[in-house]
Amino acid sequence: MSCLSASTSGEAFINGHNCISESDSVKKEIGISPQETSVAENLTVRENLEFIASVYGFDKDKIKSRTAEIIQLFSMQEVENARAKTLSGGWKRKLSIAMALISEPKVLFLDEPTLGLDVLARRELWTAIESLKGKITIILTTHYMEEAERLSDKIAIMIDGNISAVGTLADIEKIAGKKGLENSFVEIAERSRKNV
Amino acid sequence: MFKIKAFAIRNIKELSRDPLSYIFCLGFPIVMLIIMTLVNNSIPQEAGMTIYRIDNLAGGIAVFGQTFIMLFTALNITKDRSSAFLVRMYASPMKSIDFIGGYILPMVITAIIQSLISFIISFIIAIINDFDVSLSGFLLAVATLIPSAVMFIGLGLLFGTLFNDKSAPGICSIIISLSSFLGSIFFPADSTGGVLLKICKALPFYYCTKSARSAIALEFGFDEFILPLIIVTVCGIAVTIISAVVFRTRMKADLS
């Protein structure tokens, strides 16, 4: 769906655009923050944001205003002139998500955004992600059940590359017959593996 | 075009803020110019050895400097690939031509600046050593070396695309050694003859040095200048096209 790999079968659409045959249109509608921190290390926070905005063809005024908006949204004023390589893991992840958001995507892909972060940095990032809810669609992959429980409106449980269950937390608990996402996940995973 | 410009500006900023780029792209050629001039001054005139004389040395060292531009281009690409920066950019509207243009343009600018500085130092050395050289010859050599720069940058793009951050520098080191030995940079290939000269003439590096030296000497004969320049230009275009095709193929493979 993020146009980073070919489909094995079937089709996927984002805002009516086919992810394979209309990838150019899809790429204009999505933002992605990969699992590994993928920022330009020798550029400052502001320059990283301006760079991505210019790749999407924003004019000078739009680049300036959008960068200011994003810096404000993620409270990055204190590090805006710091080079990315000098940032802590938490700030780098924030920058990575901010870079994915600056192009005003309709769909944002976050691949394990809090992996390897300490508790405080994780909580801060959760708050930032929660602030985006209701504004754009976020597809977030995670191994942390607590994270999925707190941030998601809808959860899809993927076992061995297949979606085994999808729905709200209440739906998932109902399907599994267990309380809590972790217990439900384990139950659904065991059932799926028995059925293979 | 705006995507190439944006990516090129990012690469220029990354390059200009990396101390290694100054050491490799500027420091090393300048140090070699000074050391080889000292070597030249230590050789008795009766030996008749002119390879390290500044009019010969300047063109050779300028080509030698470009081999480090190749290394730096490869390092730049492998760094982006290993840090997953390219994965992010693959998901943006950038196409392979934007990446290729964005990588090549800053390195061409760097190569021109490198040649200019290298020839300015050479000119100063010539004045200090009371050797008569033409400033216009040096300036012309800067332009003459652009196709050579494109060829080395193309090779850097190729190695950076095909190999990872550990193996690409090794491959580039082989090319750096090959070009310095077989490019007539540190020994006069024309005075050797036999198989060695044939090997030198079979590789493009010899022609890079020859065209630069001819430009410095303001010799524009067909064999001395025109033919070597044509060979280097054809090789530069061919290597760039091959590296662009390989990059595009690799990008498609990464996305499948």
The domain tally of chain A reads 1
Q: How are the strands of the largest sheet of chain A arranged?
A: 3-4-5
Total number of helical segments of chain A? 8
How are helices and strands ordered from N to C of chain A?
EEHEHHHEHEHEEHH
The quaternary structure here is heterodimer
Strand proportion of chain A, as a percent range, falls in: 5-15%
Q: Helical proportion of chain B?
A: over 70%
Unreliable segments of 5+ consecutive residues of chain A: none
Structural class by sheet pairing and helices of chain A:
alpha/beta
Determine the number of helices of chain B (DSSP H or I, runs of at least 4 residues): 11
| CATH level 3 topology of chain A | Rossmann fold
Strand portion of chain B: under 5%
Residues in helices of chain A, as a percent range: 40-55%
Q: Tell me the CATH superfamily of chain A.
A: P-loop containing nucleotide triphosphate hydrolases
Basic shape of chain B:
elongated
Q: How would you state the average pLDDT of chain A, rounded?
A: 88
Give me the secondary-structure category of chain B. Answer: mainly alpha
- The overall average pLDDT of chain B, rounded, is 90
Q: Which consecutive residue ranges of chain B, at least 5 long each, have pLDDT under 50? A: none
Helix-strand topology string of chain B: HHHHHHHHHHH
